[in-house]
Specification:
The complex is a heterodimer of chains A (127) and B (133). With 127 residues, chain A is mostly helical. Chain A has one domain (3-126). Chain A has 4 helices and 3 strands. Chain A has helices at 3-31, 42-68, 92-109, 111-126, and strands spanning 72-74, 83-84, 87-88. The termini of chain A are far apart. The longest helix of chain B is centred in the last third of the chain and has 34 residues, at 78-111. Chain B is elongated, with a radius of gyration of 22 Å. Classes of the chains: A mainly alpha (127), B mainly alpha (133). Chain A binds chain B through residues 1-3, 6, 9-10, 13, 43-44, 46-48, 50-51, 54-55, 58, 69-75, 78-79, 94-95, 97-99, 101-103, 105-106, 109-110, and chain B through 5, 30, 33-34, 36-38, 40-41, 44-45, 48, 51-52, 55-63, 65-66, 78, 86-87, 89-91, 93-94, 96-98, 100-102. Strand 1 (72-74) of chain A pairs antiparallel with strand 1 of chain B.
């Protein structure tokens, strides 16, 4: 099994979690349809873009240092051969997964309380 | 046997906690939710690591910077701390970016003389409570 094949499986799981979180967000927004509370995704997307840029740069720097000082090694027959410095491109899948999985889990965990709050807000405005 | 890598990771984690506490980013926003999110993340990445190690994709380097303690074959103790750092950093960055961008938008709106309606505007609020209202 290659590094990319393994990454595909785990990134798939991340995508499913993200889908569930987006669905929940949509349901919440509908519950509070008349209120402006959960609002647009614009600011969230912009913040995610900035965080992604910073984390990818940090990953490039630290992964190169970690591999450079010999903390970790790779079987060259199982990686694609695409590198950022001396870091295999595949390693960046961890950073991408963290950026999508963690806020998704965070959203899913807040489900009950925030759905109730959204419903309450919706009901208040409907009156 | 070395502690250099573990110490560097612990210092970085303390840095994450400091930023989190100062700006209320993750644990200081909702402790229980943050704990579960971090736990899910670390366990998820550990499984990813173990699958990678099992498939022979990567392995622990022979270095004097690590303690040599292994949680599983080729899985160093340090990896758990690395993953805690990665997850905490990610959530701090996401919340911190939002704070930075919101603050910038607010400053812009303020300098343009428009009220965003977000957050208290100077002069409003407290002054209505001291009898001058």
């Amino acid at each position: 099994m290659t590094y990319w094949a393994i990454n595909a499986v785990f990134l798939g799981l991340v995508a499913v979690t993200a889908g569930a979180a987006l669905l929940l967000r949509w349901v919440r927004a509908r519950a509070a349809r008349t209120s402006s509370a959960p609002g647009s995704l614009g600011p969230v997307v912009r913040a995610a873009g900035l965080a992604t840029a910073v984390l990818l740069v940090m990953t490039a720097v630290f992964d190169n240092v970690m591999i450079g000082v010999g903390l970790v090694g790779y079987d060259e027959s199982r990686i694609s051969g695409a590198f950022v410095g001396i870091a295999p491109l595949e390693d960046f899948a961890y950073a991408v997964a963290a950026l999508v999985l963690l806020p998704s889990v965070w959203t899913l965990l807040g489900s009950r309380r925030e759905t109730e709050a959204a419903k309450a807000a919706g009901a208040r405005e409907a009156r | 046997m070395g502690f250099a890598y573990l110490v560097v990771l612990l210092i970085s984690i303390v840095g994450m906690a400091t930023l989190d506490r100062r700006f209320g980013l993750f644990f200081w926003r909702d402790g229980w939710r943050a704990f579960v999110t971090l736990l899910v993340g670390v366990v998820f990445f550990l499984i990813w690591d173990i699958v990678g190690i099992d498939a022979g994709v990567f392995f622990r380097g022979e270095t004097s910077f690590m303690t040599g303690v292994q949680l599983a074959p080729e899985l160093p103790l340090e990896e758990v701390f690395f993953l805690v750092l990665l997850c905490w950093l990610t959530m701090n960055l996401l919340a911190g970016s939002r704070l930075v961008l919101d603050a910038r938008a607010e400053r812009r709106a303020a300098s343009a003389g428009i009220s965003t309606g977000a957050g208290p505007s100077p002069g409003a609020g407290p002054s209505t409570r001291d009898g001058r209202a």
